Amino acid sequence: MGSKNWIKLRGTGIRGRFMKMLKCIYSREQIIDDDVPSSESLATRDYSASGYSSRAGEIEPKPDTSNIEEAESSLRESACLNYEEARALLGRLEYQKGNIEAALHVFEGINIAAITPNMKVSIARRCENNKRRRSQSDMVPPMSMHAVCLLFEAIFLKAMSLHTLGKFKEAADSCKIILDTIQSALPEGLPEYITTDNKMREIINKAVELLPELWKLAGFPQETILSYRRALLYHWNLDLEIKTKIEKEFAIFLLYSGSEASPPNLRCQTEGSFVPKNNIEEAILLLLIIVRKFVVRRIEWDPSIIDHLSFALSVSGELRVLAKKVEELVPGVIDRTRRYQTLALCYYGEGEADVALSLLRNLLNNRENQNCIMDLLLASKICGENPDLTEEGTNYAYELLSKMDKRCTQIESVANCVLGILLSSRSEKVSSDSERILGQSKALEALEKAEKIMGERDENVLFHLSLENAEQRKLDSALYYANEFLKVDCGCTVKGWILLARILSAQKRFLDAESVINAALDQTGKWDHGELFRTKAKLQIAQGQLRNAVETYTHLLAILQVRNKNFGSAKKVGKGKSDQDRRLEMETWHDLANVYTSLSQWRDAEICLSKSMAIAPHSASRWHSTGSNWS
Length: 631
Description:
mainly alpha, 0% strand, elongated, 29 helices
């Protein structure tokens, strides 16, 4: 008999045997073929005994031709279909029909612990044969790659079945077997030619993507983090879209899960390379990698990436980096209005209010920008912090209120509060008493309206109401709003305590004011004690306790010195905070010099003034203190 006729007859025999097995599966009858080993009949016999047998008279389902072709391929390679492979095919049939419990029952009959060693050896030998270009007779693997792929698919479908039934931890354990097997067989990574098989590539991609989600659903945050890192650090030859999706999901988990991750343990890294130390840094690194892929046009743009990156960089105080990344994006990726708004917020957060206001002016001068409520609000707030821009800020605030039309009471309340601050600052610059009184009256009216509109009591509105009443010498109202502010604020901020103490001081209640400062010192952090100690010293001076005031000022200077020493070596210290500390130290030396002058300790007063001169040579208050000392 010719070789072609023999191959043809052999193929016909394989198809005949497999069709008999399928007929046995679907009719639930036991058919034993002498040519097929008894291990094949075990699969059908176990399934028939499990209670899933069909009733008489039911229409037989049509077999899936793709399963037949895969079975034929497996039979040609190994000359028979063994017990595990038969269960893998049978389980897939049930899973495709939607019989999840039946499929799981079949998959659980596969002895995974027994087959994984052969699968590891088969994968490793396949790679060695390709590397060394040996013939097929050398180091023949115990299993074909087609059989390995078939069993991997069975393990993956078992994990999917467990996931569908809500058994997330068991599903994760099952899915993890696939990755453990591949990583144990190929420690250096998955070669390209292993993933040329589309089926194998699809299973690996899905398993790598599914495992972190299963641990997440099971409630194991540390296992979730480890599986995400494993997916990204091991060379799986993942599709670019899938790897980008994993990077994004990992960044989101690090930002919002609330679980603190330990720094990654990298086996190989370039000297001087960046290693993230916490969740925020790792999330920022992942998001920047995604942005880089888009910049080089490897992936499509995802608008949510800039949202997560904005949050991460804002929390870490890296607003300048965020501004740089937004500026690097090509025009059209994000809307022009949103780009300018984001940049304005970044520069304002970095203390560059002039740059932020310039960007907002460009937006507000654009007639096409109809929805400019937030732009007007931020612009008016920035103007309120600069006494030279109160007129412009007032115009922005009035324009904002004219556009509100009762659409959002909270924004309307904030706009009235900003308007009240602007009118109050503006009234201080007018020369006429009548204009000043009118401006103060409008400011107080706007603040009261803000307090009335706001559904809940807002601490910022209460603070400025108390401050405005105090400046207009309405001390009882100021005292009421100051106490209300402390109730809402729970005594967390220093400015509320200082305002209350100053109002009590204006009422000549110095002992009560000092008691308030002492209570604030007990309830606030030690690094926030600077202004509190200075206020306490001024209260002691008002009571004639000059020696006590000297001790208080000395204590304040010691705190400033320790804080400068601790934070001086920090990588990044806020410019505004540093300037504030220097100004407080300079004014403290001036105050102490005045106290020494009152005590006729001229030499000590000169030393204090020399210390002040080293901080700021051109200071009007220092020259005043110097004149008082020499007089």
